[in-house]
Amino acid sequence: MATEAPESSPKSPRILVFGAGSVGCYVGGRLMSAGADVVMVGRARLRKVFDESPLVLTDYEGFHFETRLAPDTFTEDPAAAADADLVLITVKSAATAEAAEHLAKYLRPGTPVVSLQNGISNAETLRTRLPQTRVLAGMIPFNVLQKSPGNFHHGTEGHLVAEQHPGLEPFLPAFERCGLPFELREDMTAVMWSKLLLNLNNPINALSNVPLLEELSDRNYRLCLALAQQETLGLLKQAGIPTVQLTAIPTPLIPKVMSLPNWLFKRLAQKMLAIDPIARSSMWEDLEAGRPTEVDWINGEVVQLALSQNRKAPVNQRLTELVHDCEQSRRRWAGDELLAELRSASK
Ligand SMILES: NC(=O)C1=CN([C@@H]2O[C@H](COP(=O)(O)OP(=O)(O)OC[C@H]3O[C@@H](n4cnc5c(N)ncnc54)[C@H](OP(=O)(O)O)[C@@H]3O)[C@@H](O)[C@H]2O)C=CC1
Ligand SMILES: CC(C)(CO)C(=O)C(=O)O
């Protein structure tokens, strides 16, 4: 257990986290815990929290770290990007274009910018608006929940992945030291679609209004997820987009495993159920906070993929509509109701 960050050396590269919420504060704070020079750009409401209390990080394996964040370490001012050597983008997808517009004013040419966001298109949105920088797709597989203001909890396993690029290599030791090693890969399109197949659970978790563990222990919700994943896998196959294995289960088999009866699922998917009992999807957090969700960047991407092949994606289309309804109505769905709704949409 660490409670204060070691001093960063004067020559450490500066890592800027743009959009410090759950993922940004957690990854930025972990880097700080190992002495990295980190600046986070976030909102005034969190700045106020950090004026009164420390940033507190915990994880499912017992990690605990607390540190006070000075005004120059957590700031609302995007001008902090001017001396960044690496940028991590951790805003929600709807805020990506605006984040890029801020950063375009300050970043030095050639600065590596890694999108640690869900969805498929965020890196491209950044790339078109930051042509002088090196935008790389990244992927964060684990769950981070803000348990209380300024207290971020990492609830599931997995390691960070980013697009292979020599510009990232000088930063890898800092990630290694803080316990969040990066794997660099060349097949990021396959990685991002494979992560999206897992994120198809986000709307189901959000609509269920129960923690991930409770939701995935209910076969009706798992059958909803299997319908959305099966539809997506069919479209990916037709489009010639490969998948990669990100969990203990080969990706094409996930819908079959999701469909198993509870007793067999619990036996076979033990690793998948090794989820902190309080963990919930980031989409649930958005609904709870009354913010617009990322559903258009998750299920909406599947609908777009279908359109590009003159096909339809009725299950993902219906989930998108239900989450948009829920943004207004806050209606929550029982497993059997949601399954009946999606089955009728897919007819
Ligand atoms: N949370 C999780 O477990 C996981 C999340 N992800 C993905 O990571 C990304 C980030 O998610 P998450 O951390 O949960 O999101 P959060 O909403 O918790 O964090 C994003 C933060 O960025 C702030 N922000 C947006 N625009 C700006 C700006 N221009 N200047 C300063 N701050 C800004 C937001 O403020 P405001 O709300 O006021 O706009 C918010 O506080 C998403 O794509 C998500 O899907 C991936 C894996 C796991
Ligand atoms: C880690 C996971 C899959 C948890 O649902 C996620 O990506 C999210 O909440 O957005």
From TrEMBL:
Its EC number is 1.1.1.169. Residues 187-325 form the Ketopantoate reductase C-terminal domain. GO terms for molecular function: 2-dehydropantoate 2-reductase activity. Pathway: Cofactor biosynthesis; (R)-pantothenate biosynthesis; (R)-pantoate from 3-methyl-2-oxobutanoate: step 2/2. It comes from the Bacteria. Residues 15-165 form the Ketopantoate reductase N-terminal domain. InterPro entries: 6-PGluconate_DH-like_C_sf (IPR008927), 6PGD_dom2 (IPR013328), ApbA (IPR003710), Ketopantoate_reductase (IPR050838), KPA_reductase (IPR013752), KPR_N (IPR013332), NAD(P)-bd_dom_sf (IPR036291). Belongs to the ketopantoate reductase family. This is 2-dehydropantoate 2-reductase.
